[in-house]
Design goal:
The complex is a heterotrimer. By secondary structure, chain B is α+β, with helices and mostly antiparallel strands. Chain B has 17 helices and 9 strands. Helix content of chain C is about 70%, strand content about 0%. The chains are: A mainly alpha, B alpha+beta, C mainly alpha.
């Protein structure tokens, strides 16, 4: 019972947050609502006993990516598009798209309920001890079975970081010279 | 084009919030983009915790580097030199204290000696020795204030209180001697008015004996501290040639390597009787100025100790009449004030009031070096450099 | 009864401990943070040869309350063009992040809100890093050029030092093998040593990183009053500012708790495994009683009667607490030796004692923070970033390797202490090399001071 209440709470916050993200006039407000949505999603992860995913969502997504988004929003001119020509039929297009996608999703869910054992409905929750200890299991698989992809991913991130620093430095230097 | 419409720019601006006010826009108003080329003018206003008075500094920044400064002064101008033309020589003496209010006794010494020179009168030896002792104590007090506030600007919270504690002892001596702590008017033209009180030598001796240990406290806190060194080494470098070209004097000149101290070069009061060193630096950076001033405090203490051993007996007032009417002429007399060379140029027209008194304030001349010293440094260094110049706005503006 | 009411009662019955702890945290921590501020002012005064707050309440003990009341009744000024929603939200985020991360911190073997979650340390770190959002949004919402710059600088500093701190924590986690807080403390019990003795460099790196993370001196450039860029807190006055401020002090407590758990043995008493030192378990009672005795000694020297009465009251309170501790231990001893007393309160003991040691260690850690604040000058921002990126992060990485090597050596039969000493010497050599190299670099950089320098790391 508590599970349902918590789930509906988190899901509601996530959905409302997402809706507010796309309808806010102010970009920073959108970013803050996106943070709310992400935190609610993290809450759902926690409910599913995926605690590592919960904290990874918070540290990486909220603490990393959203901070980056907010930096960018702060440092970039946002009223430039407002001075340009504006697409007037936006609301009509949005309504049509939402209707089409909603109909598709609804059709899928309705038709799939009849399929035996393969439906889209919620499976039974896995017993808690299957997923515990979360971080240890993840670490075991990352560092033994999936070691190569892990190393490739980290080298990729390193390359990206070094490249960003180099590009920023070069830009400054060429600007100084010009 | 169907479906497209022009928005009006005013609609965007009327939106509340921060859309129109990104750093980009701020910088555009300020002559160029923030993340790029041109200059930003930052005003370090007359009210600022670190400008040591009402000094306004306009910094031209490129990102975080300072490209140049412009000092706006005059917020504390009181027309002291003009007032001098309408006061008698004795009446003007208290005004002199208020210029460099941190080191009032030095101001008084310079003025009294200048007028004595004009009158061709010498203060008696006892007066000269007591004047020296008080002036050296004042030098220590001034450097203590400098040290406390400079350290506070750079972030060390504690030395200020230790310095104030020592300065309290000195101010107690001043209060016992002449009744005032800050603007003392301790000297008179021709000598002293007050005899030194009973226990004067004892007080000074006790202070000096205690002070060596205290200086060691400050040195322990700051001198070897790598953060302090990082904040002050190679910051605000002013080499010897620049110092002389700009007219900088005092510890700034000595830190650049020039061994020039008026107490040795043109001795006044009773300085020729004592043995003391002139500390000299090498780099001319903030750290050297710090070391020079610390060493000067030590040397002042030595002078005081030597002086109180033999204070000659005798009169304290020279042969000066009640009405001071120097012969017509002009005189320039300078002394080594704690902040630099303090000079008085007095023109007399044979009346009881001077025709013109022009003060050569060390802080004013030293402040002109600020522009040269801050170029290329970061904004955070500006505060340290203003502190190391040791300016007092009362002297800069008069 | 109504099934809804039944479910609610069942919920309360299952979760009453956590709920109480949560309420206690939200209610008590800001008050405690206020008193930590008072403690800092008194300590600062003591180190500066003066007295500190003395007027408001005996020895200034009502000062935080007076400050809180003043801040609450202050006029709420919001900058004209600012974003009101974000302006309101930013200090709230800061405070909530600090309080939430406090939830997973364990003050004793059984004192935890988030009942010993698997990812204990990671939770505390991750949620307390949400506080950065509060800083950025606060700087933005102030709608002032310099506030945004101050917020960006502060965030850059926090992010850099969080990396270094995280790497230092990894060294301690290597030794413990788990993220669970109670398991970490248990590991220190099992390995017969606090982790700071097994990984001292990691402890030191974490100390420096945590000072930078809480924006304390010598890394408090974003907050400094004598700097030009006024920082993200400028436009905040009244209780909003108080929220930021309390969030910062709550953050200090959180960071102190992490350090205590990871490096200082959590709630273990000194030498927990040495049985002939079991009498040390009496120490909390003795220490508190000694504090009471000192209060009585000072009571005689107070100038005013109110202060004397107050000191006596404090002394009596200390004695009462010490008596409770001592009584519990005496009961425990009687049970051990078979004396029949129909009262078994043994279950409280580990919790109380553990809480005492834990709080003592956190207080010591925070004392070091304050001590450093009053002693050291402030780093300039580029020097700060140099220190973080050029010295601390490489050192922390090398330290992770070192701890791993020492664990490997231990697994292969080398005495653990020898392995620790060897690897620590290696890391210290690397540190010396890094610092020398860093000094050379700053020498050459400052002599060529007109070349552009990417000080942002």
């Amino acid at each position: 019972m508590l599970d349902s209440v918590l789930f509906y709470f988190f899901a509601g916050v996530a959905v409302i947050g997402a809706a507010l993200v796309v309808t806010s006039r102010n970009a920073i407000h959108s970013a803050v609502f996106l943070i709310t949505t992400l935190l609610a999603t993290a809450g759902i992860f926690l409910q599913l006993r995926a605690e590592f995913l919960f904290i990874a969502q918070i540290i990486l997504y909220v603490g990393g990516i959203m901070v980056l988004f907010i930096f960018v929003i702060m440092l970039v001119r946002l009223d430039v598009p407002l001075h340009h020509l504006r697409f007037r039929m936006k609301n009509l297009v949005v309504t049509v798209v939402i209707a089409v996608l909603g109909a598709e999703a609804g059709a899928i869910i309705y038709l799939a309920r009849k399929l035996p054992g393969q439906g889209l409905f919620i499976q039974n929750m896995a017993p808690p001890d299957k997923l515990a200890p979360n971080s240890e299991k993840l670490a075991e698989s990352l560092f033994s079975g999936y070691l190569l992809p892990f190393e490739i991913a980290s080298v990729l991130l390193l390359v990206a970081m070094v490249g960003a620093v180099v590009m920023a430095k070069n830009k400054k230097r060429t600007e100084e010279e010009s | 084009m169907p479906g497209f419409a022009k928005t009006s720019a005013s609609k965007a601006v009327s939106k509340k919030g921060n859309l129109g006010n990104t750093l980009h826009d701020d910088a555009l108003q300020n002559n160029g983009t923030l993340l790029g080329a041109d200059e930003l003018v930052l005003n370090m206003g007359p009210q600022h915790p670190s400008t040591h008075g009402v000094l306004r500094v306009k910094l031209k920044l490129d990102g975080e580097r300072v490209r140049g400064t412009e000092c706006v002064i005059g917020y504390l101008h009181r027309g002291v030199e003009k007032i001098a033309e309408n006061r008698t020589y004795q009446q003007f003496a208290p005004y002199v204290d208020r210029m460099d209010y941190v080191a009032a006794i030095s101001n008084g010494l310079g003025y009294c000696e200048a007028v004595e020179k004009l009158l061709n009168v010498e203060a008696p030896p006892r007066a000269r020795v007591i004047r020296t002792i008080l002036t050296e104590l004042q030098r220590i007090a001034s450097h203590l204030v400098w040290l406390g506030t400079h350290a506070l600007d750079i972030g060390a919270l504690t030395p200020l209180f230790y310095c104030m504690r020592e300065r309290e002892e000195i101010l107690k001596v001043f209060e016992k001697y002449c009744g005032a702590r800050l603007t003392t008017h301790a000297f008179r033209i021709g000598g002293l008015q007050y005899e030194s009180y009973d226990g004067f030598e004892k007080d000074v001796e006790r202070f000096c004996n205690d002070f060596e240990r205290r200086i060691q406290e400050y040195v322990d806190l700051l001198t070897g501290n790598s953060i302090w060194i990082g904040r002050t080494r190679n910051v605000g470098v002013l080499n010897a040639a620049d110092c002389i070209a700009l007219g900088a004097s005092g510890p700034i000149l000595r830190a650049a390597g020039v061994k020039w101290d008026l107490r040795k070069a043109q001795p006044y009061a009773s300085y020729d009787q004592y043995k003391f060193e002139i500390p000299v630096g090498t780099n001319g950076d903030t750290y050297d100025r710090y070391m020079v001033r610390i060493e000067e405090m030590r040397q002042s203490r030595l002078i005081c100790l030597q002086a109180i051993e033999k204070i000659p007996e005798g009169a304290i007032m020279g042969k000066v009449g009640k009405v001071i009417k120097p012969p017509a002429g002009e005189i320039y007399h300078s002394i080594e004030a704690p902040k630099g060379i303090l000079g008085y140029y007095i023109v007399s027209d044979a009346t009881t009031q001077p025709y013109r008194v022009r003060v050569r304030p060390p802080s004013f001349i030293n402040l002109q070096a600020l522009d040269k010293m801050v170029r290329g440094h970061l904004v955070a260094d500006v505060v340290a450099i203003i502190g190391t110049l040791d300016i007092v706005l009362g002297e800069v503006d008069r | 009864m109504n099934p809804t009411v039944l479910t609610i009662l069942h919920f309360l019955q299952t979760w009453w401990v956590e709920l109480t702890c949560g309420v206690v945290i939200v209610a008590v921590v800001p008050l405690v943070a206020g008193y930590v501020v008072l403690l800092e002012r008194k300590l600062m005064a003591d180190m500066q040869a003066r007295l500190g707050p003395m007027r408001v309440g005996p020895h200034g003990l009502l000062q935080p309350i007076a400050d809180a009341v003043k801040l609450l009744i202050k006029e709420d000024i919001i900058p004209a063009e600012s974003d009101k929603f974000i302006f309101w939200l930013a200090p709230v985020i800061s405070m909530v992040a600090a309080l939430t991360s406090m939830g997973a911190v364990a003050f004793g073997p059984a004192f935890q809100v988030a009942r010993d979650i698997n990812i204990g340390i990671l939770f505390v770190l991750g949620v307390s890093s949400l506080g950065f959002l509060g800083i950025i949004l606060g700087g933005w919402a102030s709608n002032s050029h310099y506030s945004i710059l101050g917020a960006l600088r502060s965030t850059a500093q926090l992010v850099s030092y969080e990396t270094a701190g995280g790497l230092a924590i990894i060294s301690a986690l290597l030794l413990s093998g788990t993220l669970k807080i109670s398991a970490i403390v248990q590991a220190q019990y099992d390995q017969h040593a606090w982790f700071i003795f097994l990984a001292p460099v990691a402890g030191f790196i974490y100390l420096v990183a945590s000072i930078a993370e809480t924006n304390r001196a010598p890394f408090d450039l974003p907050e400094a009053e004598s700097e030009l860029v006024a920082g993200y807190m400028t436009e905040y006055s009244g209780f909003r500012w108080a929220l930021y401020f309390l969030g910062e002090y709550a953050n200090m407590i959180v960071v102190g708790s992490i350090a205590t758990t990871l490096f200082l043995g959590g709630w273990l008493r000194p030498f927990p495994n040495v049985h002939w030192l079991n009498w040390l378990d009496f120490l909390p009672a003795v220490i508190i009683a000694l504090v009471g005795v000192y209060c009585i000694y000072r009571a005689g020297k107070q100038p005013v009667k109110v202060q004397t009465g107050f000191m006596w009251a404090v002394a009596l309170g200390c004695f009462a607490v010490a008596f409770v501790f001592a009584a519990l231990w005496l009961l425990h001893l009687f049970h051990r030796f078979g004396v029949l007393i129909p009262l078994n309160l043994d279950f409280i003991l580990p919790g109380l004692n553990g809480a005492f040691w834990f709080l003592l260690k956190v207080s010591g850690y925070i004392y070091v923070f304050m001590w450093l604040r009053f002693t050291l000058p402030r780093y300039r921002f580029d020097q700060l970033m140099h220190l973080g990126w050029y010295i601390l992060i490489p050192l922390a990485i090398i330290n992770v390797f070192a701890v791993g090597i020492s664990m490997l050596l231990e697994a292969n039969g080398v005495n653990r202490w020898i392995g620790m000493v060897l690897t620590t010497v290696l890391v210290l050599a690397a540190a010396v090399f890094l610092v020398r190299w860093h000094d050379q670099r700053t020498e050459s950089a400052s002599t060529a001071s007109l070349t552009p320098d990417s000080y942002a790391g």
